[in-house]
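user: At home tonight, take the chain set out below, taking as long as you need, and be ready to discuss the fold:
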Amino acid sequence: MAGLQPGTTTPTELTVHGQSRILEIAFSDGAAFNLPFELMRVYSPSAEVQGHGPGQEVLQTGKREVTVIELEPTGNYAIKPVFSDGQESGIFSSDYLDFLGSEPARLWADYTQRLEAAGMQRDAPMAAAGGHGCASH
């Protein structure tokens, strides 16, 4: 499996729960997580969310009701969710999915702190994206 570190666990089962907006994921090491779509969306590894370097992250808002409308496998090591708000460029590796599932309380707390620091509300609509000419998203 190209792209995996030695000892990396891999997803063995993925179940999309549209009504509850949860991705249920089981790993080869026996770990299992329920990842809220909102958490996946606000922590998407896409350049649209993460930027192209430190300090370029884009704080995501208005994602509480986002759903996954499609889940595309990417090789044997990752998935690419297509979200209902049109975001589809994030490739979630096995390691990243494991990280999201292992750290939800810390990630939610960090997200809440970043919203507060920015004076933003979780359900506020996203500001119009400023065209910066990046062809990656």
Residues 51 and 84 are 21 Å apart (CA to CA). Residues 130-137 have pLDDT under 50 and may be disordered. The first strand starts at residue 11 and ends at 17. The helical segments are 37-42, 47-50, 94-102, 104-118.
